[in-house]
Amino acid sequence: MNAEKKKHSFVVCVDNSEYPASLEKRKVYETLSDTQAERHGQIRVIDESGDDYLYPRHLFFPIHLPEAVGKIFSHAS
């Protein structure tokens, strides 16, 4: 995993209508930085299995969590 993919942030799902089996509306998801995906309007989201998948960015809203809370949500810890 390169340094770019180690940058973690969090989003909340605001629309799961395109992926109802994969995403839960109002759920917080961890993301990985992926500049190539971002150029195409996508975001890399980590699901419950620990795997990451690309989704359209418009399905999510970025949120900022305090560091202690981010560690609880992070799969990297």
Second rung of CATH, namely the architecture: Roll
Radius of gyration: 12 Å
So, the CATH homologous superfamily? Answer: SH3 Domains
- Mean pLDDT over the residues: 85
Order of helices and strands: EEHEEEH
Shape: globular
Instruction: Provide the helix percentage.
Output: 10-25%
Runs in which pLDDT lies below 50 for 5 or more consecutive residues are 1-5
CATH topology: SH3 type barrels
Number of strands: 5
Oligomer: single chain
Terminal-residue CA separation: 15 Å
- Going across the biggest sheet, name each strand in turn: 4-3-2-1-5
CATH class: Mainly Beta
Computed structural class: alpha+beta
Main sheet record: 5 strands, antiparallel
Number of domains: 1
The number of helices is 2
Properties at a glance:
alpha+beta; SH3 type barrels; 5-stranded antiparallel sheet; 5 strands; 77 residues
Structural features, described:
Strand 3 (42-46) and strand 4 (52-56) form a beta hairpin. With 77 residues, the chain is α+β, with helices and mostly antiparallel strands. Strands 4-3-2-1-5 form a five-stranded antiparallel beta sheet. The protein is built from two helices and five strands; from the N terminus they run ββαβββα.
